Amino acid sequence: MCSTDSLDGPFGGSVTVGGLRRTLNFGDSSNGRGTTIMPRDVDPYAHNHHKVIQRAVASSINSKNLKPKLGKRNYRTISDVPTRVLDAPDVLDDYYLNLISWSKDNVLAVALGPSVYLWDASTEEITHVLTVPGEQSYISSVSWCTIPGSTKYLAIGTSNKTIQLWDAETVRKVRNLGEHRGRVSSLTWNDSKKWLTSGSRDSIIFQHDVRCSDHVVAKYTGHAREVCGLSWDEEGHSLASGGNDNMLCIWDAAMSSRNSSSRSSQGSSLAISPRFTLRDHKAAVKALGWCPFKRGLLASGGGTADRSIKFWNTVSGKVTRSVNTGSQVCSLVWSNRTRELCSAHGYSENQLIVWDYVTMTRMQELKSHVGRVLNMEMSPNGSTVASIGADDTLRFWDVFRPPPKSRRRYKS
Questions:
Q1: Which among 305, 156, 331 is positioned nearest to 242, based on CA atoms?
Q2: Which pick of 242, 331, 376, 379 has the fewest CB atoms within 10 Å?
Q3: Are residues 378 and 371 in contact, defined by beta-carbon separation less than 8 angstroms?
Q4: Is the pLDDT of residue 374 over 90?
Q5: Distance (Å, rounded) from C-alpha 49 to C-alpha 125?
Q6: Measured between alpha carbons, how far is 174 from 195 in angstroms, rounded to an integer?
Q7: Could you tell me if 66 and 364 are in contact, meaning their C-beta atoms sit under 8 angstroms apart?
Q8: How far, CA to CA in Å, does 394 sit from each of 52, 145, 146, 308?
């Protein structure tokens, strides 16, 4: 049984490591060029990242908006120019990592090599959270808690096989979670169960109840290689996982709950197998997105040898549609407001694509990045997406912003 009587706060076991807060330079973006995420005592020109940003933004401004064939549907205008570009040095160009997460409180967590920074989109304040020690150590994943009342907590996966849980308001570490035998490359939260889900290079998925000292609720075994993508559906009933074994797995939360109730008598969690093991992709599966307006519909994207977005009926385990994108698919986000899908790509186009879901027509292509787009996140208001690329930049796009309301004119 889980007892939280002696634990401090909603996530238990508070570990004080010292409140480290450091203010970072944030340059003026009024000139249209990239601003900088970097310590005050570092010369930004020593990194030469400003040249990358200048080239990328100039390329964006000179490009033309994509004009799709309209047919019978009305397509809105989407700008292909980023609204903001931040310099993000030391981004790890590793397809299997998940390096950004946007909180419900409008704070973007960014992993840059061994360090994690927070960018408050409301105040533009930048905070350094931690730098993991060790010359070969790095941050491999970040994920904000989405549980109501606990959204200030950030889970951080490391190359050292551990997960750190941080309170972003006080910039203090709450606790360590250590069960994996490889780097923790993917993290997500289940709101209804109040679980943190982790995936690793060891091919294992763990469910953690971080309120408990004995935090492992369940162990999922089904992948043969690194688990690089994780996503719960909105209800918290089904988990999708993607791996470097080219497999997509669908799991039932109900199995974890039954396992959790029985583990106290057995002393350890039992291994759980997936409901579906889907092998239609021909490369690693990292990009995952549950449709917010159609229950049970999942989109998944494949790596360089696959390049497709597939849509799944997760009740039957069948593919309902497959689209060849022409590039490695790195990330997917849905818009409930516009009923559209945005995909982020690596080799060879290094772009974002906005799709009309009904026809899967390319509404716009965003080609500002000059390196592959590693990850993408949507803002809490659903209007903006942030993308981080191997070109050491973080870019913001107003792809789902609603059109301005027209003014009514009344006859006098």
A1: 331
A2: 379
A3: no
A4: yes
A5: 20
A6: 16
A7: yes
A8: 12, 22, 22, 25
